[in-house]
Structure formats: C-alpha cells, structure tokens
Amino acid sequence: MSKKVALITGVTGQDGAYLSEFLLKKDYIVHGIKRRSSLFNTDRIDHLYQDPHIDNQNFFLHYGDLTDSTNLIRIIQEVQPDEIYNLAAMSHVQVSFEMPEYTANTDGLGSLRILEAIRILGLEKKTKVYQASTSELYGKVQEVPQTETTPFYPRSPYAVAKLYAYWATVNYREAYGIFACNGILFNHESPIRGETFVTRKITRATSKIALGLQEKLYLGNLDAKRDWGHAKDYVKMMWMILQAEEAEDWVIATGETTTVRDFVRMAFHYIGVELEFTGEGQHEVGTIKKCNDPNHQLEIGKEVVAVDEKYFRPTEVDLLIGDASKAHTKLGWKPEYQLQELVNEMMQSDLKLMRKDSYLKDGGYEILNYFE
Ligand code: NDP
Ligand code: GDR
C-alpha cells in the first residue's frame, strides 16, 4: 500500500515540528511549507532534514506563503496530499493588534486560499483539511467551561481572523463535501514554544535569573487564566481528527485552568525558589520569600517579577478552560501531560540552553536580554 502524504503549512513552528515528527513515525510522506527568510528559520525541524540527494526521502520542504494563492495551488497540485494541516498563522495575539491587516490576510484569507485550492484542483474527495482553530474564538467569557457549542466572542484581530477561517472551514465542508475540520485547541506549550508567548518567556527568564544572567522578569496581566497543555498531546489529536469517521469540529483542552501568576510560581519552584506577590495591578511585584537551592544564590526579598503595562492588551481574554468531553468520548483522546510536568520539561530545557549563555559570558561575550 502506498504511503499517505501530508502537507503541513507552518512546518517551522512549534506544532509543525511536533506534527512532522509524529507523522514521519506513522510512516507518512511529509511535505512542509516554509517561508523564505534572510536567516535560517528551520531550527525546530533541522533534525528531520534529509539530504535531497539520497533515495527514499520522506520529508520535503517547499517555499511558500499563505498570502500567495498561486504558490499554494502549485504546491498542492504537485504534492497531491491526502491530508493538509493548515497550521501557518501570525499566531501572536498581542502582535495582531499591531498588524491586523496582515493577520487577517494570513490567518483568515490564508485558510480560504487552501480550501479554494482544493476545489480548483478537484481534490474535494481526496484531500482532508485540518484547520488550526483556537480557544481565542471564545474571547469574552460566555460560558465556563467552553465546549463545541459555546458561542464565540473574539477579542483581538487574531481571533477575528481565526473566526473567519473557522466558518470558511465549516462552509466548505457543507457546500462542497470536503472533509474539513476545525480543531479548537486551547493553549499548548513545550520547550520549543515561541520565546514571546508567556509560558516560554517565563521559563527562559526564570532560568536566566537563576544563572545570574537577568535581574527581573517583566510581565503584563498576571490574572489571566489559561488552560495549558503540552503540544505533543495536541498534535496527536490533530491527526486523530482527520482519521475520525466524520468531519467535525473538536475542542481540545486539559480541563484545568491556571493564572499566569501561578505559572510563574511553578517555574520558580523548579529552581527551589518560593515567591511572594504583593501590590495590585501595574504595581504588583514578585519577591523571593524562600530559596531552598544552594546552587542558585538569590537573596531573600529580591524583586524578580514586575508588571509592565506595555504587555497589557487593548482587549483581554480573561478566562479559558475547555471541556474536551467530545474528544474523550468519541475519539478516546486524553492528554498525557500534567501542567507541572510541562513546566518542569520547559525549565529543564531552558536551564540547559541558558547555561550556554553563562559559558559565553564567562568567556567575555556580551549577553543580550530581549524584553518582548
Ligand atoms: P507558531 O507561531 O510557532 O508557528 C506559526 C507558523 O506559521 C510558523 O511556521 C510560521 O513561519 C508560519 N507562518 C506565519 N505566517 C505565515 C505566512 N504568511 N505564510 C506561511 N507561513 C506562515 O505557532 P504554533 O505552532 O504555536 O501554532 C500553530 C497553529 O495553531 C497556528 O495557526 C496558531 O494560530 C494555532 N493555535 C496555536 C495554539 C497554541 O497554543 N500553540 C492554540 C490554538 C491554535 P516562521 O517560522 O517563518 O515564522
Ligand atoms: P495567548 O498566549 O494570547 O493565550 O495565545 P500568550 O502566551 O501570548 O498569552 C497568554 C496570557 O498571558 C498574558 N500575559 C502575557 N502574554 C505575553 N505573551 N507576554 C507577557 O509578558 C504577558 N504577561 C501576561 C496575556 O495577556 C494572556 O492573557 C496563544 C497563541 O498560541 C495563539 O496562537 C493561540 O490561538 C492561543 O494561545 C490559544
């Protein structure tokens, strides 16, 4: 039997990398679309790269962009995929307030371009499509926990664009019979999460503070609550969604919610530090209350966390907590990771990474801290 062929947009991102690994293990031929950039942007998938001069290659990269229809049509025509995973997006909620039009073009129209390419090429009966939908669609809380039937109320240009993509996916399923599905995924993280999302920002900064490479971690809204899972669990579910009997839309979540503040506590706990938070709103600070690890010489009372208003969003999503009962019951999906395990894995990885900076600093190199 011939191998299944998958095409992944956003292959260089967190989920694209984990999904590629997952599908290659399942013996798929994997094609990915990457953007041209002036520096290498394939760090997360370099370990999957194959010399194009060898036979039996099963991982291929194509230059492309979700804003370029002709490029997408050509790649889909060449690849003839059985499954498309549309993961490409301008995925940062706060940045979408700075770049609303680009976000709409990529995250909204980009999804339409993929669906339309399938129609133009007559692949409606062959190619299944997974659309990376998001818990950001729920935005302003209408119901707790959120399920497949909870009304949407997007609160950012990102979420508005993703709302368009959500409904385009449903519409192309109903209008043309394409096996197109939305995975409404709640936040999912990992050691390869983008550095400016809050979890990774926290684990990187905590590691740097532990090693004396950074003084303080500046954050925005510490009260925001998110349902955080591990990206590895979630990419498995993307695949399961396309293997289901019927094309449907699915909520994927852990069912537990945690504040940003508690995530910070958990990261510091990993390095043996207990934090105390005092003050309110933009004046809130986190100081070291106890330090149990003699390797990390941090003084009691030192202020290591502070709030900077620049990270507040014009409209915020206060509380996300998902109910993935449908996925549990109909597909047998259950997340394997607990939040503390995820935090530990991220801390372990970032401490290792930051030790490199520490050696460089000892060798006389200047270490820069980016406050984004
Ligand atoms: P990342 O930001 O890590 O990856 C996004 C990917 O999209 C990168 O490969 C990026 O390329 C690519 N990309 C961005 N713009 C374009 C464009 N115009 N054309 C082609 N490619 C583009 O996101 P994640 O892996 O975390 O998320 C994957 C998808 O899932 C996204 O659509 C996101 O919105 C959605 N999602 C994510 C959740 C999460 O918690 N992680 C939760 C719910 C939904 P480059 O590397 O060059 O920047
Ligand atoms: P989110 O993720 O907006 O949920 O979108 P992010 O990690 O950016 O923010 C989570 C919450 O933390 C608060 N926050 C901060 N966020 C960032 N980035 N930086 C800070 O300094 C900071 N301080 C507090 C935010 O206000 C927010 O409430 C992610 C993305 O992966 C989307 O693509 C995806 O669709 C959703 O998750 C589900």
UniProtKB/TrEMBL annotation:
Gene Ontology MF terms: GDP-mannose 4,6-dehydratase activity
Gene3D superfamilies according to UniProt: NAD(P)-binding Rossmann-like Domain (3.40.50.720), UDP-galactose 4-epimerase, domain 1 (3.90.25.10)
Gene (name only): gmd
E.C. code: 4.2.1.47
Source species: Jejudonia soesokkakensis
Protein name per its UniProtKB record: GDP-mannose 4,6-dehydratase
Alphabetic keyword roster: Lyase, NADP
Superkingdom field: Bacteria
Cofactors: NADP(+)
Role of this protein: Catalyzes the conversion of GDP-D-mannose to GDP-4-dehydro-6-deoxy-D-mannose.
CDD domains registered for this protein in UniProt: GDP_MD_SDR_e (cd05260)
Keyword NADP: yes
Family of the protein in this entry: Belongs to the NAD(P)-dependent epimerase/dehydratase family. GDP-mannose 4,6-dehydratase subfamily.
Coiled-coil parts of chain: none
Reaction(s) this enzyme catalyzes, per UniProt: GDP-alpha-D-mannose = GDP-4-dehydro-alpha-D-rhamnose + H2O
NAD(P)-binding domain ranges (all copies): 7-346
